[in-house]
Specification:
Structural class: alpha+beta
Number of domains: 1
Strand content: 25-35%
CATH superfamily: Gcn5-related N-acetyltransferase (GNAT)
Distance between the termini: 24 Å
Strand order of the largest sheet: 1-2-3-4-5-6-8-7
Helix content: 25-40%
Largest sheet: 8 strands, mixed
Radius of gyration: 15 Å
Shape: globular
Length: 176
């Protein structure tokens, strides 16, 4: 599938391009992104190049992972990365991270809602899941504002970048 461009009142969501590598690299220096997401630690410029120029375009090409960057209208400042990933037949997972300076302004809810709405309208899905490490209260707040039902806590679901197993929240959003 070819990448799409989505627009909200304040944001443009589009496929990342090579010109975005530095912004992704800078954003991913944030310790919270490195702790709460599967970002490599340390996060190198080469990691940003691989994500932007190889991994994310490959996701669209294989119809498995739909990653868009959210950028503020006018300034074109990177707000964050938002993706839907196919995890099984009819089920997607919503994932996101936001640039530290862009948090707390409602951008993540706005961007994730636009992406989920696109997913419902375009992809053959009946459920979107959200996962976050326990303690990632910002991610949980976004998910709850989007209407996700937090369905449980999985004990020691995965090992984080600190080398220790952590509990994870899981939530679901069903087709409206």
């Amino acid at each position: 599938m070819d990448p799409v461009t989505l627009e909200t009142d304040r944001l443009i969501l589009r496929a990342f391009a090579a010109v975005d590598v530095d912004a992704v690299y800078d954003a991913c220096q944030d310790q919270d992104i490195q702790f709460y997401t599967p970002a490599p630690v340390p996060y190198r410029r080469e990691d940003a190049e691989k994500s932007v120029c190889e991994d994310w375009p490959e996701g669209w090409a294989t119809d498995k992972n739909y990653t868009l960057g959210a950028f503020r209208k006018g300034s074109e400042a990177l707000v964050g990365s938002y993706c839907l990933t196919r995890i099984s037949q009819g089920v997607l997972e919503l994932g996101y991270w936001a640039v530290r300076e862009q948090r707390g302004q409602g951008f993540s809810v706005e961007a994730a809602r636009a992406l989920c709405d696109w997913g419902w309208a375009t992809l053959d899905v009946h459920r979107i899941e959200w996962w976050a490490m326990v303690g990632n209260t910002g991610s949980r707040a976004v998910a709850e504002k989007l209407g996700f039902t937090v369905e449980g806590t999985l004990r020691q679901r995965s090992v984080a970048n600190d080398g220790k197993p952590h509990d994870w929240w899981v939530g679901g959003l069903l087709r409206p």
